[in-house]
Amino acid sequence: MFSSPLAARLRHRGVHYARAIAGATFLTMLSASAALGMPGAFLRPLGDEFGWNTEQISSALALRFVLFGLMAPFSAMRIERFGRRRTMTTAHLLVAGGGAPDPQTGRPGQRLSGPQSTSNTLYSGPSG
């Protein structure tokens, strides 16, 4: 296990293991809230850059919050079935993987359109 050697190293340095866990939990919550809330801070720049109106961006953010709320019962089920470590690792990977294509998005709803999203991003012609 990773926790036993880590706890021993922290104990040797005079740091209680609970402080490391609290720090990791804080960073996890901070990164998740930043991933969820950051597009709201960039509402106007996104509209200016891509020509989207506020309604298009807000509806995508509303859908994101709805999905976030609907996932809570399923997350609890996964924790009971697979354990906290596997569930948290999967959640971290999904958050990181979900935000990775953001810089390549060029039109509203592109990320929802499926596998052809990447090929649409590579097309540099006029959007019509």
Automatic annotation (TrEMBL):
Residues 95-128 are annotated as: Disordered. Residues 113-128 have a biased composition (Polar residues). Keywords: Membrane, Transmembrane, Transmembrane helix. The keyword ATP-binding does not apply. InterPro entries: MFS_trans_sf. It comes from Alloalcanivorax gelatiniphagus. This is MFS transporter. The chain crosses the membrane at residues 20-41, 61-79.
